[in-house]
Design goal:
The complex is a heterotrimer of chains A (612), B (414) and C (338). Chain A has 20 helices and eight strands. Chain A is mostly helical and 612 residues long. In chain A, strands 3-4-6-5 form a four-stranded antiparallel β-sheet. Chain A has a two-stranded antiparallel sheet with strand order 1-2. A two-stranded antiparallel sheet of chain A has the order 7-8. Chain A is globular and about 90 Å long. Chain B has two domains: 176 residues, Periplasmic binding protein-like II (D-Maltodextrin-Binding Protein, domain 2, 3-Layer(aba) Sandwich); 203 residues, Periplasmic binding protein-like II (D-Maltodextrin-Binding Protein, domain 2, 3-Layer(aba) Sandwich). Helices cover 44% and strands 20% of the residues of chain B. In chain B, strands 1, 2, 3, 6, 16 and 17 form a six-stranded mixed β-sheet that branches. In chain B, strands 11-8-12-7-13 form a five-stranded mixed β-sheet. In chain B, helix 8 packs across helix 9, helix 8 packs across helix 15 and helix 15 runs antiparallel to helix 16. The radius of gyration of chain B is 24 Å and the shape is globular. Chain B starts with a helix and ends in an 8-residue tail after the last helix. In chain B, 52% of the residues are buried. Chain C has 17 helices and no strands. In chain C, helix 6 packs parallel to helix 9, helix 10 crosses helix 17 and helix 14 packs across helix 15. Chain C has a domain of 216 residues: MetI-like fold (Orthogonal Bundle). The chains are: A mainly alpha (612), B alpha/beta (414), C mainly alpha (338).
């Protein structure tokens, strides 16, 4: 039975400004008292929350003053003040529905007692069934979430529009002027600092748009008309070139202008909102915040904003903006022949994605195989390092091994040495004419050099092996600390019960390690997908695979992973930036999908109580 | 107190390298233009001296402050394409990248005096090599971009040098290798095709785009060429994919290396008196003998398009000086590079063992090729390497794959 | 055990397990047990005399296992250190400069080290200076940024916090090389490439450093809020709380972040090569040494590379070993909690 959606006028806005949507919160009435119920996930913080009930009649309530209760499944609820007759019916309905759903859920799930009766095999089958039944629910939940996101977005925009209209209609004259001249309302209320800042922002924006913004936007659609113009100087008998349009710059500054426009729109909205708040505060007789208050709050309650301002600015300028730029590049034909400076590039839409994703084209075959190898590599690299590192840590940790510090120090020293030196050296060590082959031939173990890096399969194995060499000390370090945390009496008691070493490992050590380092494993897996150093320095992408064709003058190879391919295309002889962007986007898709999946499956999120 | 001392100490330590690096940046201000120059390996000091000499002796009193960097000639155009705004003002590049340089608008148009200079001091061939469309685009600098055979006299006897099979046999008997970069550089492998009479000619238009091609690699002659190449590739581990003379002294040394004149000095250092140089050998397939030719290419000096007219003029004067007779002679004396200057080529003292071997090799004038053409050759030869004893039909398949990929290389189809 | 204690234990590195085990109570004393019942319990279940044969058998298998482990560990140490010995030996080789088929030099000498500093192509002093400057400046500024972001995100549940964290997570999933060309163009407009590449690289490193806040945030999360509240009662502003109370408590994580920030430029060759655009003076140590190993240079400069590698590895290793305990504290304290 579907849960009925709450009527639109009931929203819950918490003090921190975030909103809790209707799926997670319910209003209902029991025994004549109205309650607000929260689903178990959205537990509140220790701070009180401000609850706004009906949008049309805002009322603030401090939750700390209300009695609090707990549902059997852990959801919390507060009492709230009654809001009106018309809501009573709704509340009654919610109450009834809630009870019904809880009953259904209880019927579907096996009772704990029944579950324990099943033997291991049946339990496994039950878990499997539950998992697969859950999958369609995930997809439905995902689509619901996406739909909800857009709906909330639309609602928010409508909300803002309504608010704007009301501010204009009911606001004071200074507020109305603020719609045109930003900061005027603040000046009128005596907040000269804020007013000045708003005014400056408006001035900067207008100046920028007039001087250069309009220019960049006008060219944004075509990304430039003329790249260079040759001018012949008769006196000197020389032809010089004048650069006119630069597609690169147009794209870049176009994006910046659009950013700026959005930022300005946000600031303008902020300005209007503040005027309205000032009006309300003045009407209710209290004092508005003065400039001195603002300055004080920079180091006090707004300190987090102060702390975040510079780093976030840096991130936006140097990470977010470039990534957006490169995403847009994937829809152009920017490559070595159309470099934007000497030859313009322009929009081509989805053509690039077509070429890589059409089933059967040479490029898609290469992409498929490289993707497969990337995932295999990440999986083996992560888990081989993990288990072997843990194994080594356990060995050193074992009672009776002397000079533990010595063993650990030697292995840890290898972390310190910069990776590129050791990897470059190892790469040359195993080259066809390198030391290892030379010694093996000299000792008559083999007749001709083993092609460590030029034989497809062997190169893959070598890359994994050297990665183990690089990774074990680091994993050993991490797991040592955690291993020491496991209380010894667990082992002692299990030994009394007759467990041998392997059972101890499987039942005590492994679950504990997996729980504690679960997130770390995920991070490690994701970072191994993008592990550029090891593969590039060792084999440069492996023995080339001619049957995959070439992109950007770079022939991918057996040990190429997605990021090596991206690098090869970006810095190859015929840099093919558009394909590099496409591959970058695809890497992102892969990584994000994997993260989502693993994060949802991760047991450590749910079973935290089991270990106490 | 201690904390304060520590902070002061840290600041000083932090500032020292900063100051060092900054002070290194302050050069002299006594120059007219600051330029970047890209030259090949081994010529950095020489070029700096030459530019200093130009600063002293030029008739206009122009002083250049040149930042000379080492960039391999085959990479120069690629690097310039990647970052066109920051590329070198003067750069040396190999002939096979000329069309691409023109296509990417990396070469400034040459003015009257420069064109006259080139016409006067370069051979017909050099002028034609420097032409794309109908205009000369760059200054010829060296005329020795080709390859020939280096060999170890102890292993390969001189009488065998003319015959590829004999050389292979000598190598095998001595348990040594044969080095030739046939599978990672279409430049060398094309020799086999030209030996059997195939040719691949690409026409360019005024802008460096490729408009048309005539290619008959996919033919009976092509199969013969592949078979000839397979003789070397069938050596298995005896074939070393390298054109470096350092393989002479590897663990399992090579007895013969196909390389060019740039390696002569290094080869002489390794093998000393045992070094032999000879023209490329010939190979026999099905009873007919074919002589391997070499691509004879040039190295050019190009100028980036400028927006300052006076700077452009003086840069051309500098380029004229750097590719003039005096400088080419200096390059020959220091590094053994064969000059492209007409006078020097006629001069009988300007020659060496290696240059003679190169001159004695039959050569094919190198035209312009799309960059991906070399990659297609690589793809084909790499497939051949995996199955050197393939039957004719398989070889035919490789040729068909190759020739069907050429269509995409015509500029409009890119 | 609290975080501090765990770290402390790891730092000590040689906890005596036997002594520790002897102090562990097998069962907590149950108040419901009477004294006699307790002693009875102990007699029956705790102080059980173990059969001698089982003890002896255990001891023998234990000793065999230990010997095997010692052998394995020794082999591991040799294998792990082998490449470094290789580099050190090859850096002393004087008779040839290219890739050879043996490790032990026939002629020993310091030629390669001298060449590192005198040969204009292997501009080691300049590279080293560049990298040192980059490391010092980056470490300080990066630490400041990361601590600021971590503290703000950890302490304050402000509006837009989730949004910010999600944005950083999402944009962190894009590969770093994607934006190389754009960053290059930006920097080149500001004249921060080629010879000035180190400064451009510093700008890039510190600008995006805020995204690596996870470890420090994990650490700040473990500092109890009651400290904050006590200070607020005394009338301290947030800024004062941060600088006077929280920071002094976070010494391990601060040093860890500084160490990580310092070590980063020493290994980054991709960005350095790209930003330097073939200008020798603008390389950092990693780019420069890697350039020495390209096809056209390796024959003349392979041993020089080895010498350079040794000279780079030594100070980094010493620094790392000195600050090792902070590294361990940071990694185990922050990393595994996610």
């Amino acid at each position: 039975m579907k849960k009925k959606k709450a009527p639109d006028f009931v929203t819950v806005e918490l003090r921190d400004g975030s909103e809790v949507n209707n799926e997670e919160v319910m209003l209902f009435k029991m025994n004549g008292v109205s309650y607000l119920a929260c689903a178990p996930q959205s537990q509140p913080d220790e701070e009180g929350r401000e609850i706004v009930l009906c949008r049309r009649q805002k009322r603030s309530v401090n939750v700390d003053e209300l009695p609090v209760g707990k549902f059997p499944d852990g959801g919390m609820f507060w009492q709230q003040l009654p809001c009106g007759e018309e809501q009573d019916a709704v509340f009654a309905e919610f109450c009834r529905r809630y009870e019904q759903e809880a009953q259904e859920k209880r019927r579907k799930e096996l009772k704990a007692a029944e579950y324990l009766k099943l033997n291991r095999w049946q339990r496994f089958v039950y878990k499997l069934k539950a998992f697969f039944c859950a999958i369609p629910r995930w997809f439905v939940a995902l689509f619901k979430k996406i739909g909800r996101f857009f709906k909330n977005l639309g609602l928010k925009i409508a909300d803002n529009a309504v608010d704007l209209w009301r501010t204009f209609r009911y606001g004071s004259w200074s507020t109305r002027v603020s719609f045109l001249v930003m900061g005027f309302g603040n000046f009128a209320h005596g907040q000269w600092l804020r007013g000045l800042l708003f005014l400056l922002m408006q001035g900067a924006f207008i100046t920028y748009m007039v001087l250069s913004g309009a220019h960049w936007l006008s060219l944004f659609g075509t990304l430039g008309k003329v790249a260079t113009v040759e001018v012949y100087d008769e006196v000197l008998d020389i032809t010089i070139v004048q650069h006119v349009d630069n597609s690169f710059k147009i794209l870049l500054y176009g994006i910046l202008t659009i950013f700026f426009i959005f930022a300005f729109a946000y600031t303008w909205r902020l300005n209007v909102k503040q005027c309205r708040i000032c009006d309300e505060i003045t009407r209710s007789g209290k004092k508005v915040k003065s400039a001195k208050d603002d300055l004080k709050s920079i180091v006090d309650d707004q300190f987090h904003k102060t702390l975040l301002s510079l780093p976030v600015f840096g991130i936006v300028m140097f990470t977010i903006l470039p990534i957006i730029f490169m995403i847009l590049v994937a829809f152009t034909n920017y490559d070595y022949l159309h470099d934007g400076y000497n030859n313009l590039f322009t929009w081509v839409g989805l053509e690039n994605f077509n070429s890589i994703l059409t089933f059967g084209s040479g490029l898609s075959v290469a992409f498929g195989e490289i993707l497969a190898w990337t995932l295999i590599w990440a999986f083996f690299a992560t888990f081989s390092n993990y288990f072997l590192g843990m194994f080594v840590a356990m060995m050193i940790n074992k009672k009776g091994i002397k000079i533990k510090k010595f063993w650990r120090t030697i292995l840890v020293m290898t972390i310190a040495i910069p990776q590129f030196i050791s990897l470059l050296y190892v790469s040359n060590l195993f080259a066809d004419n390198g030391v290892v082959n030379a010694y093996l031939i000299r000792w008559h173990i083999i007749d001709s050099p083993i092609h460590f890096w030029t034989d497809g399969t062997l190169a893959k194995i070598m890359v994994l092996a050297v990665n183990i060499w690089v990774g074990i000390p680091y994993l050993m370090l991490i797991t040592t600390g955690i291993l020491m945390n496991i209380p010894d009496d667990l082992y002692e008691s299990s030994k009394i019960d007759g467990a041998n070493g392997f059972q101890q490992f499987a039942k005590i050590t492994l679950p504990y390690m997996l729980f504690v380092t679960g997130p770390y494993l995920l991070n490690s897996f994701i970072s191994n997908i993008n592990n550029f150093n090891v593969i590039y320095l060792l084999s440069e992408g492996g023995p080339a695979r001619p049957d995959w064709g070439q992109v950007g003058g770079y022939i991918a190879g057996d040990t190429t992973i997605l990021i090596t391919w991206l690098f090869g295309i970006t810095t190859g002889a015929e840099a093919n930036y558009k394909m590099a962007s496409v591959i970058g986007i695809l890497i992102f898709v892969v990584v994000s999908v994997l993260s989502l999946i693993v994060f949802t499956i991760m047991p450590s999120n749910r079973r935290e109580d089991d270990f106490s | 107190m201690k904390k304060r001392l520590l902070i002061i100490l840290l600041s000083i330590v932090m500032l020292v390298p900063v100051v060092c690096v900054l002070s290194a940046c302050n050069g002299d201000n006594d120059y007219d233009y600051a330029i970047t120059v890209w030259v090949g390996e081994g010529t950095k000091e020489l070029t700096e001296r030459q530019i200093a000499a130009f600063n002293e002796t030029n008739e206009w009193g122009i002083k250049f402050k040149a930042d000379v960097q080492i960039v391999s000639e085959s990479k120069a155009v690629g690097d310039a394409t990647q970052k066109p705004a920051d590329s070198a003002d003067i750069f040396c590049f190999a002939q096979d990248t000329l069309a691409r340089a023109v296509r990417s608008n990396l070469l400034a148009p040459l003015n009257g005096p420069s064109l006259d200079f080139i016409k006067e001091t370069s051979t017909e061939e050099a002028q034609e090599a420097a032409t794309v469309g109908n205009t000369i685009r760059a200054f010829p600098m060296t005329a020795d971009n080709g390859f020939f055979l280096y060999y170890n006299k102890d292993v390969v006897s001189e009488s065998h040098v003319g015959n590829l099979e004999d050389i292979i046999a000598d190598c095998r008997n001595a348990g040594q290798n044969f080095s030739a970069n046939l599978t990672d550089s279409g430049w060398y492998s094309a020799a086999f095709f030209y030996a059997t009479g195939c040719s691949s000619v690409w026409e360019t238009d005024e802008n460096g785009g490729f408009v048309n091609y005539t290619d008959d690699f996919n033919s009976e002659k092509g199969i013969v060429a592949l078979k000839g190449m397979a003789k070397v590739l069938a050596m298995g581990d005896g074939y070393v994919e390298s054109d470096k003379v350092s393989t002479f002294s590897a663990g399992t040394p090579s007895a013969a290396v196909i390389s060019g004149i740039w390696d002569y000095k290094a080869a002489k250092t390794i093998l000393k008196d045992n070094l032999g140089v000879a023209p490329l050998p010939s190979f026999t397939v099905d009873g007919t003998t074919y002589q391997l030719p070499t691509f004879l290419g040039y190295k050019f000096m190009g100028i980036k398009p400028q927006s300052d007219a006076y700077k452009a003029v003086y840069l051309q004067k500098l380029a004229m000086y750097l590719t003039g007779e005096e400088c080419q002679r200096q390059r020959f004396e220091e590094m053994g590079w064969g000059p492209s200057n007409v006078t020097l080529q006629a001069d009988s003292t300007i020659t060496s063992e290696a240059l003679q071997a190169l001159a004695a090799t039959k050569h094919v004038q190198q035209g312009q090729y799309p960059t991906n053409w070399w990659t297609q050759m690589d793809l084909m030869t790499k497939s051949l390497k995996t199955s050197p004893n393939a039957v004719d039909s398989a070889l035919q398949g490789m040729l068909t794959t190759y020739s069907s990929s050429l269509h995409a290389l015509v500029t409009d189809n890119e | 055990m609290t975080e501090q204690e765990t770290s402390q234990q790891i730092l000590d590195f040689d906890v005596d397990f036997n002594a520790a085990a002897a102090n562990v109570e097998i069962d907590p004393p149950d108040p419901n047990f009477t004294q006699t019942e307790q002693t009875e319990f102990r007699k029956r279940f705790v102080d059980v005399p173990r059969p001698v044969s089982r003890l002896v058998g255990q001891r023998v298998t234990n000793r065999i296992a230990n010997t095997v482990i010692y052998i394995v560990l020794s082999i591991m140490c040799i294998v792990w250190l082998l490449p470094f010995f290789g580099i050190v030996f090859e850096s002393f080789r004087c008779e040839s400069t290219g890739l050879e088929g043996y490790i032990f030099p026939k002629k020993w000498g310091f030629d390669n080290y001298v060449r590192l500093f005198t040969d204009p192509t292997s501009n080691f002093l300049r590279w080293f200076g560049n990298t040192l400057a980059m490391g010092l400046i980056t470490s300080v500024v990066q630490t400041a940024f990361q601590l600021a972001v971590s503290y703000a995100l950890s302490r304050n549940r402000f509006k837009g916090r989730k949004f910010l964290m999600n944005m950083m997570l999402v944009f962190g999933m894009f590969p770093g090389f994607l934006t190389l060309i754009l960053l290059y163009t930006l920097l080149s407009d500001w004249n921060l490439t080629m010879t000035n590449a180190p400064w451009g690289l510093i700008l890039i490193y510190i600008a995006s450093s805020g995204m690596g806040y996870y470890i420090a945030k994990g650490f700040f999360d473990t500092i109890s809020h009651s400290l904050d509240e006590a200070a607020r009662v005394d009338g301290a502003t947030q800024m004062q709380i941060f600088f006077k109370i929280i920071l002094p408590l976070s010494k391990p994580i601060v040093i860890y972040t500084i160490l990580m920030g310092f070590m980063a430029p020493w290994g980054d060759f991709v960005m350095a090569t790209f930003m330097a655009n073939n200008t020798n003076n603008g390389y950092n140590v990693a780019a420069g040494l890697q350039w020495l190993l390209t096809d056209s240079m390796i024959n003349d400069y392979y041993t020089t590379f080895c010498a350079g590698g040794v000279l780079v590895a030594i100070p980094i290793t010493i620094l790392f070993m000195l600050l090792q305990k902070y590294y361990v504290a940071g990694v185990t304290g922050g990393a595994v909690k996610g």
